[in-house]
Amino acid sequence: MNVNHVFAALASHPRRQILVFLAQTALSTSDLAARFGTTPPAVSRHLSVLLHAGLVSAERQGQRVLYRLERDVLLDALARFASEMDAPLRRAPREAL
Amino acid sequence: MNVNHVFAALASHPRRQILVFLAQTALSTSDLAARFGTTPPAVSRHLSVLLHAGLVSAERQGQRVLYRLERDVLLDALARFASEMDAPLRRAPREAL
DNA sequence: CATACTATTAACATGAATGTTAATCATGTG
DNA sequence: CACATGATTAACATTCATGTTAATAGTATG
Q1: B88: nearest CA partner in chain A
Q2: CATH architecture of A3-85
Q3: At residue A14, does pLDDT exceed 50?
């Protein structure tokens, strides 16, 4: 997992909004499109960015594809960034960014 | 403070990079410009976005203006967003991320 | 297998963000 | 007060992100 990918994904307001919706329950592309007045193609591309960042997972169920928030990935990335911000002098051994 | 302002500020890679530098020590505009090969005007506008979001503070020292990371604001915003993501049921009191 | 429905991709247009150079403002120094 | 240095703003060009519609792919159902 890559903090930069995650933040690139979080960089977009619509995507953060999608995550907020998915925090409640898993939803399909068109569910999400309906929920904030945009079209499925727009949502679909946002979802692919979120997928690539590992922030959501997809599961096909018949015609629909249900997207689910990957909380651990998100919270872990936030925690990593937070600890990076907390690193004034201590440059001790650190694993990945 | 506004989580959206903060995330709008964090949306930019160069700005996150600035924050990483400022996590080490307070720096001036041209210090930062030198540190990642760009020009003072570019840095200056990024800093004004960060200022507006409350993520950094500015203190003039003679000709130079020293910028300082506001850790609390940043960490608080991350924690708020994290708890928003954790929000389906558990709305219990939580300390920092 | 034809049709309907959902999701994704393609192509395009538009608006926002970033960086650059030039100009202006602020501060310090001779 | 003239000049040098650092910071900011302005104006501009370029790139990137977003959304829209149209087309394509996958899945279910009659």
Answers
A1: A24
A2: Orthogonal Bundle (1.10)
A3: yes
